[in-house]
Amino acid sequence: MSGLPDRLPPESFNLPVDDIRRGFYTDVYFNRTKAVLEHGNQHPRAVMQVFQKKEAWVGGMDEAIACLKLCSGYFGAGGNWVEGWNELEVRALYDGDRVSPYETAMTIEGDYSLFAHLETVYLGSLARGTLVCKNVKAALAAAGGKPVLMFGARHDHYSVQPLDGLAARLAGMDQVSTDAQASLWGGKGIGTIPHSLIASLGGDTVAATRAFAELYYPGVNIVSLVDFDNDCVNTSLAVARDLGEKLWGVRLDNSETLVDRSLIDEMGYFKPTGVQPELAAKVREALDAEGFSHVKIIVSAGFDAAKIARFEAAGAPVDAYGVGSSLLRGENDYTADVVMVAGKPVAKVGRRYRPNERLEAVR
After folding, report:
1. Domains in the chain: how many in total?
2. Which residue spans within 183-333 are E strands per DSSP?
3. Residue 259's domain spans which residues?
4. Does any domain span residue 159?
């Protein structure tokens, strides 16, 4: 299919190849299935069909293919691994493709004993990548073209960061918080100052931002975290007065259990706790009044697509959104079925072979 990007090479993913080959990450019944077939010298030529059940965008496909390329095969004489990839025919959608419910996303055809042990692993890659890709798409759509920053690394195991970051990139997000998240597309992590730096310098946000700027300006956008004292307006002004043009932006990250000091006198007409459109408006008004209109406002803390949409509907003066765990939550499971053997339909009741002309041969 012309115009589509090349798939990432298998080596990009740093897979634990030896462990995957021996079935360490595989549901044991698949390992036993492979053993039964090999013990009986059975080599059924099967078509495995992979699909999911939502409106989504494909993620994790290149990693799934890498698993098949590097780990299909069998242990031969002397325990040596005999590769099986060249004996398989794989057709698949591309990462970033839109996929419909029950649409076939990938087919694997060949001697089933060569890849029976890989189902758990490649389905897991697809499930995780597609989930993140779909969630990022939703957040970006809600933001209406404004940047969304991926702050979810701390909410899951570190090992998933490269795949998560790749899925985010496929969905259109290129601002992630760790180098690992950006590693599969050659980017770098970005971020603001954290609360811990402010605390380490005696709870002085101005001093912490100044120290950060002394080391990183102008190579890094200087964004101050201004909710440490739960007084975003006055802290934003104090930092802006001190840093002037060096200050790129401020980030509002108030706890959902607190009411910022600037909103106390206006309680009663809107939800006052945490980061709200009214708080962003207060900070924008104060900065503009003192000539700091160049300072951008980033909001975070509990944001998902729905909360972003609420801010946009309210016309909140926000320049970017920081989103964390909501990008990693939910489910987008994949299923794989053997639907043909030796050219004949064998799918269980309720499933059938569903050819898809959108699939491209994988080389």
Report:
1. 2
2. 222-225, 247-252, 296-299, 320-323
3. 191-327
4. no
In tens digits, what is the pLDDT along the chain, a chain of 363 residues? 334 458 999 999 999 999 999 999 999 999 999 999 999 999 999 999 999 999 999 999 999 999 999 999 999 989 999 999 999 999 999 999 999 999 999 999 999 999 999 999 999 999 999 999 999 999 999 999 999 999 999 999 999 999 999 999 999 999 999 999 999 999 999 988 999 999 999 999 999 999 999 999 999 999 999 999 999 999 999 999 999 999 999 999 999 999 999 999 888 888 899 999 999 999 999 999 999 999 999 999 999 999 999 999 999 999 999 999 999 999 999 999 999 999 999 999 999 999 999 999 999
Does residue 201 sit in the same domain as residue 127? no
Instruction: Tell me, yes or no, whether 209 lies in a domain.
Output: yes
Q: Name 260's Cβ contacts closer than 8 Å, sequence gap at least 6.
A: 227, 230, 231, 232, 233, 254, 272, 279, 282
Token readout for 291 is: 């000539």
Give yes or no for a contact between 326 and 279, defined as CB atoms under 8 angstroms apart: no
B/e letters for 176-203, b = 16+ CB within 10 Å, e = fewer, are: bbbebbbbbbeeebbbbbeeebbeebee
Polymer length of the chain: 363
Q: For residue 227, with 0-12 CB atoms within 10 Å meaning exposed, 13-18 middle and 19 or more buried, which class applies?
A: buried
Question: What CATH code is carried by the domain that includes residue 238?
Answer: 3.20.20.70
Task: Classify 251 as helix, strand or coil.
Answer: strand
Q: Are residues 208 and 311 in the same domain?
A: yes
In a domain, 168, yes or no: no
Contact 84, 115 (CB under 8 A): yes
Task: Tell me the pairing of strands 247-252 and 222-225.
Answer: parallel
Handedness of CA 93, 94, 100, 101 (dihedral sign): positive
Query: What is the DSSP pairing of strand 104-111 with strand 89-92?
Result: antiparallel
Rounded CA-CA distance 230/272 in Å is: 12
**Is there a domain that residue 117 lies in?**
yes
Kindly report whether the global pTM for this prediction surpasses the value 0.90.
yes
One domain for residues 291 and 342: no
